[in-house]
Amino acid sequence: MFTGLLMAVLLLVGCSENEGGTDDLNYVGFESTSASIILKAGSSGMVEVPVFSTVKDNSNVTVVVDDSSTLDPSYYTYSTQLESIEGNGNSYKVVINFENYDVTNINGKSVVLRLENGSGYSSESLIVNTAPDCPTVGLSLDAYPEETYWFISDAAGDVVAAGGVDLGLTALNNEYVGLTSASATLCVLVPGDYTMSIRDTYGDGGASYVLTVNSGTEVVFSVAGDSYTSGVNVPFTIE
Description:
Blueprint: E1 28-30, E2 34-40, E3 45-53, E4 62-65, E5 76-78, E6 83-84, E7 91-98, E8 109-116, E9 126-133, E10 136-140, E11 148-154, E12 159-163, E13 181-185, E14 192-200, E15 208-213, E16 218-223, E17 231-238
Parallel strand pairs: 2-9
Antiparallel strand pairs: 1-3, 3-7, 4-8, 5-7, 6-7, 8-9, 10-13, 10-15, 11-12, 11-14, 14-17, 15-16
């Protein structure tokens, strides 16, 4: 679960001619104009956006999605009314829930929200940026990088990702020729059980592999280049 915490004050002013002849000022706005969230495949996330208001009754304030939003609207829901933060005076929040998203289609996308008071005024926009947190495989290659390739199979035995060879495992593609290191982002790996098969066509090993999650901070497994000859199969689980 992810929470975006935000900090600056926006302002919505009601003029006397639009506020029933009074000259009172009404302030309501997001406490920042930007936030971000990193989302995992097959999971969900949430952003709580603090809002400040000098008005006790905010029943006329609505949350709207701006036309400049680029994230698929089916990937998130949001509260259309301000939610009071209990015991915190004139502080409120807007909650955005992210779920049922395609993690391969969220990078660089955003949700843009505004507050409206029903009198023709809008707050400054809040931009919530989304990015994927996908498992990554890293390779340290030896002097013969063209000899190594790998593929990952799911619990049903279907190949879902590969490197150095096509997904059908019918032909090497020499993508590592001339390289000393390489990596691949594996957004196709939703939570579940998998097996990574590492192969060396000459049969003398050489390439080292490491699979990481949580933005590279957690190692799922690693395989040293001198720990195998023709190949090795490594079972692992994505949670």
